[in-house]
Specification:
heterodimer, A: 441 residues, alpha+beta, PmbA/TldD fold, 2 domains, 8-stranded mixed β-sheet, 6-stranded antiparallel β-sheet, 10 helices, 22% helix, globular, B: 457 residues, 7-stranded mixed β-sheet, 6-stranded mixed β-sheet, 9 helices, 25 strands
């Protein structure tokens, strides 16, 4: 008998999550391939409501009996389930495309060739640099079924490339990094990835003293998560319910600059975190979070939605705010693809316009601190000084600090025109900001 | 599984083959404010094989034990494919084959503790936090335990079976006043039984008190300070800023960095000694045998201020003509071993805290760590809270304390090393190369450093 039916016979309701991850990956260390690997991992998780109470258990390789016994055991000591599992209603009429057969056809030899190409192109211009790279592709097959009628199944492909280049000189070590993660082979622009990397390397040929005090700061897409990470927590319906979000009670309020619009979109065709349904089987959708500076919505999984007396927005994702937890962890509210609406102006325009300032292309210590308050204080891992509208070199030993909510309300000078996917699920343009303090040794 | 593993690696056609099979049981309880967010148990089993062919690695990760021989063939094939592109082949330093079994000790085996009791423990801590003050807006309390049984065999005849316990407790309080939100937390982690999770009431109250106190603390003023790091933060510093660059895999194919990290180079004051120790029973970084079957060592990274050793896997030891140190660790069966830390600490010196405070006109006492990150010589770490030091005395509390610097300069700038010493694992873990959270332990006495950059307004 199917485990879901057996669970439903012993409990009032049950939800089975099944995941099969299959893929290949290659890693380059010091400019040449070091490992080639494959994975084939099957995991399952079972949630039950028994005696009105919620229980969760997960397994890889374990028996149906053990999984069911663990979930029932957890439920016997659990709290009343504040929500119900997904039903079969609201199925998306046309599933969002997330599987590209061309990705599955990419072989180890091809990944190695791409890696070697990246190494060669960086070393052609910068022969002394150490180049590392990781390239991988695969599929994740997810099925969510509930005893209350939901039946969802989907295979999603991914193709990911990251390249880093390190310059090691006594007393002066630095490194730059660029990555892309896509679901469709055609969306992988390896030239653009290398252009990003090479641009940073060219900008960083010289060392320049950083501007200090409160200069204009241009966050490149790779640096924008400094400002966005607090928001991905602040917009969580659970943070709002618990009272740890500064946005609590501020729906409809203009909490941000009028030019700022942010959408959490789960159904962008082939978006890196797109899916037809979330990890609780609720159809994914398109959710405006900020429209012209006004707080429009918070995002919810089933539990947070029930506690707040609203409907799930299809944001039940395993692994919490940043996702990626796999079968082992229960779902929680998390963003899908976060899209910041772009403005106008090229990167060159923004650099020219800022006159004297700092470019932030990456930080150390992201997410360390009381993130939910919006406060940030980070070492500028990759940053450049701008003087009279020109990049004059990279900065060292430099810290930025501020509050993301304050910067995005009163410190927004300009939103750039060209967005880029960073951190797997954020589509962001460059942002030129004020009210960021800069300290250097 | 033992016989299957032995047989499969013996029959492999690769130059070298190893197979690891893990069976893990775990449970977790999590409260946020009044909500029981997680009450769960799980068990999982999975394996990884790693084959070396003509100097390149092939790897296969799987969950179906019947697939083992096929996975070895697959990893061999992948290694062979990669080996056609290798100019600088990987080779392994020789080690004596071992046959060993080891189990971590538990006073009270958490596998026999009912889930209900774990729940009540966490709930008790949670209530203490929530009841501390009306300014407490929310809380987060998490208990986790895991028993990891690891069976390892390689084609050189090594066979190791280990049972590794892991218990963590994290208590956090969120205080709120008007729009301001502050957080206090405490956490512990041990390779031990349920007993270490009990009796943590003081931690819960400390976390709550700190969150409330931080509401009235000023943000630290950015600038350059003489800083005294408390043992917790000094331990995180030595792990993040220095430990990671002593992991030899990072130097393996990086000639210029190997020159920077030349043994014998003077990195700090004469009284500075830094150790990575593989054998500390009960601590999270206790690794009697690493995931290449290599027995533990106590590795001095810095002795009397000079670089004396690095942490190695068999591959890095071969390349750098060193002895393997037992630092090849994998966070789970889903990953291959890479060079990682174990129990990493600064050995105690001779100064008292009073002696360290003496003579500081305007400085900073930085305490407890949110976490840290390093990029080569650049490091950053966040203190959970700090205090101003004014004319040799510990003054008012400050918040948002983030320290940054260049590790080589900072080690040179260490002025005094305390005689107190705390070795402690936290509930978090170390992340590297996509492998997180690896249980490690850090330790240090109080340490005084001049010329540290502190971010802020």
């Amino acid at each position: 008998m199917d485990i879901l039916n057996r669970a439903a016979a012993k409990a009032e309701a049950a939800e089975l999550y099944e995941e099969l991850r299959e893929g290949i990956a290659v890693h380059f260390n010091g400019g040449e391939i070091e490992t080639a690997g494959s994975e084939s991992v099957r995991g399952r998780a079972l949630r039950v409501v028994a005696g009105g109470k919620l229980g969760f258990a997960s397994t890889a390789g374990g028996s149906d009996e053990a999984l069911l016994a663990s979930a029932l055991g957890a439920a016997s000591h659990g709290d009343p389930a504040p929500f119900r599992f997904a039903d079969g209603n609201g199925a998306p009429s046309a599933p969002v495309p997330v599987l590209d057969p061309e990705v599955e056809a990419i072989g180890v030899e091809e990944l190695i060739a791409w890696g070697e190409d990246a190494v060669r192109r960086v070393n052609d211009e910068f022969p002394e640099l150490i180049v590392n790279a990781s390239l991988g592709r695969g599929t994740i097959e997810v099925a969510v079924r509930t005893s209350t009628g939901a039946q969802r199944h989907e295979r999603r492909s991914y193709l990911a490339v990251s390249v880093s280049a390190e310059q090691i000189r006594k007393g002066d070590i630095w490194s730059v990094y660029a990555s892309r993660s896509v679901r469709r082979a055609n969306d992988l622009d390896r030239d653009a990835l290398l252009d990003d990397l090479l641009r940073q390397l060219r900008w960083g040929r010289e060392i320049a003293p950083p501007p200090t005090g409160a200069p204009p700061v241009l966050f490149l897409p790779e640096g924008v998560p400094v400002l966005l990470l607090p928001l991905t927590i602040g917009f969580s319906g659970m943070s709002v319910f618990l009272g740890t979000s500064p946005l609590k009670g501020r729906l409809g309020e203009r909490a941000f600059d009028r030019r700022l619009s942010i959408t959490d979109d789960g159904v962008i065709p082939f978006g890196p975190r797109s899916r037809s349904f979330d990890d609780e089987g609720v159809p994914a959708g398109h959710l405006p979070l900020v429209a012209e500076g006004v707080v429009e919505n918070f995002y919810y999984d089933l539990r947070a939605a029930a506690l707040a007396n609203v409907a799930s927005t299809g944001n039940g994702v395993k692994g919490g705010p940043m996702g990626g937890g796999g079968f082992r962890v229960p779902p929680g509210p998390a963003s899908r693809n976060v899209v910041v609406a772009s403005g106008a102006g090229s990167l060159d325009d923004l650099v020219r316009e800022m006159k004297d300032g700092l470019i932030v292309a990456g930080v150390l210590g992201l997410g360390q601190g009381t993130v939910q308050s919006g406060a940030f204080s980070n070492n500028v891992g990759v940053g450049f000084a701008v003087r009279e509208g020109k990049v004059v070199g990279r900065v060292k030993n430099t810290m930025i600090a501020g509050n993301a909510y304050e910067v995005l309300k009163d410190g927004l000078r300009e939103i750039g025109g060209k967005s880029q996917w960073v951190f797997g699920g954020l589509s962001v343009p460059p942002i030129l900001a004020e009210r960021v303090s800069v300290v250097a040794q | 599984m033992e016989e299957r593993l032995r047989e499969a690696v013996a029959q492999s056609h690769a130059d070298y083959t190893e197979a690891r099979w893990e069976e893990v049981t775990r449970s977790r309880v999590a409260f946020q404010r009044d909500q029981l967010m997680a009450l769960e148990s799980g068990e999982e089993a999975g394996g990884i094989v790693r084959c070396l062919v003509r100097g390149a690695w092939g790897i296969a990760v799987f969950t179906d034990p019947a697939e083992l021989p096929r996975k070895i063939a697959e990893a061999t094939h992948l290694a062979r494919t990669a080996s056609g592109h290798v100019k600088d082949p990987v080779a392994l330093a020789p080690v004596q084959p071992v046959e060993a079994r080891y189990e971590g000790a538990m006073k009270r085996d958490f596998r026999g503790v009912p889930l209900d009791e774990k729940r009540r423990l966490a709930e008790g801590y949670n209530k203490l936090i929530l009841g501390f003050s009306p300014q407490i807006a929310s809380s987060s309390v998490r208990y986790t335990d895991a028993w990891r049984k690891v069976v390892y065999a390689n084609s050189e005849g090594t066979f190791v079976e280990q049972g590794i316990p892991d218990v963590t407790v994290m208590v956090a309080a969120v205080a709120r006043k008007n729009g301001d939100i502050q957080q206090g937390f405490e956490s512990v982690g041990y390779a031990a039984g349920f007993e270490v999770a009990q009796g943590r009431e003081e931690d819960a109250l400390t976390a709550a008190r700190r969150a409330v106190d931080l509401l009235s603390a000023k943000p630290v003023q950015g600038g350059t300070y003489t800083v005294i790091l408390d043992p917790d933060l000094a331990g995180v510093f030595i792990h993040e800023a220095f430990g990671h660059i002593c992991e030899a895999d990072f130097l393996l194919k990086n000639e210029p960095m190997r020159k920077v990290m030349q043994l014998g180079t003077r990195f700090g004051v004469e009284s500075l000694n830094v150790v990575d120790d593989g054998y500390r029973p009960g601590e999270r970084g206790n690794v009697p045998y690493d995931d290449e079957g290599v027995p533990w060592t106590k590795a001095y990274l810095i002795k009397n201020g000079a670089l004396t050793g690095l942490m190695h896997s068999r591959a890095t030891a071969h390349k750098m003509r060193a002895e393997p140190t037992g630092n090849a660790r994998a966070v789970s069966w889903e990953h291959e071993p890479i060079v990682r830390m174990r129990n990493t600490y600064i050995e105690p010196g001779t100064a008292t805290l009073d002696e360290m405070l003496h003579g500081i006109e305007r400085g900073l006492y930085a305490c407890s760590a949110f976490g840290g990150q390093t990029m080569f010589e650049q490091f950053t770490f966040s203190a959970a809270y700090g205090h101003e030091i004014v004319r040799g005395k510990i003054g008012p509390m400050v918040r948002d304390v983030v320290l940054t610097g260049n590790v080589f300069h900072t080690l040179q700038n260490i002025e005094m090393i305390g005689k107190d010493f705390v070795l402690e694992g936290s509930a978090g873990g170390c992340g590297k190369g996509g492998q997180w959270p690896l249980p490690t332990t850090t330790g240090a006495p109080h340490v005084r450093v001049r010329n540290v950059t502190v971010g802020g307004r």
